[in-house]
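task queued by scheduler; priority normal; single chain, no ligands, no partner chains; default sampling; output format set to structure tokens
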Amino acid sequence: MSKLDEKVGKYIQVVKEKGVDLDPDLLRKVTRACGPSIYNRDAETIAASDPSEMARIKNNLLIKKFGLSDSQDLDAGIDAVIEKYGRSDSRKYRAVIYYMLAKHFGKEGVYGS
């Protein structure tokens, strides 16, 4: 089993625990798109309480990658995903958050789905 397969397996379990609809192919594509960050313990997770990190996700993922316009809807979407993931969960995996954001905003096609 490759390291990517191990990470995807771990993320599949998290998605199931969060009660989110699971599309394993999309999750694999999102995980692969995260690149080497998933293999770095610190970069693999996001700090939802850090406003600068949330701003980077909004700008780099939602606006640049997903092509969405900057609006309050983006902030509300991020907030809804973080709430569903669980604010108190200290291990918010980047790939899972990105997957959930793609599903929330209907941008699965960005990953070739």
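post-processing summary
- The beta strands are 45-46, 92-93.
- The chain has five helices and two strands.
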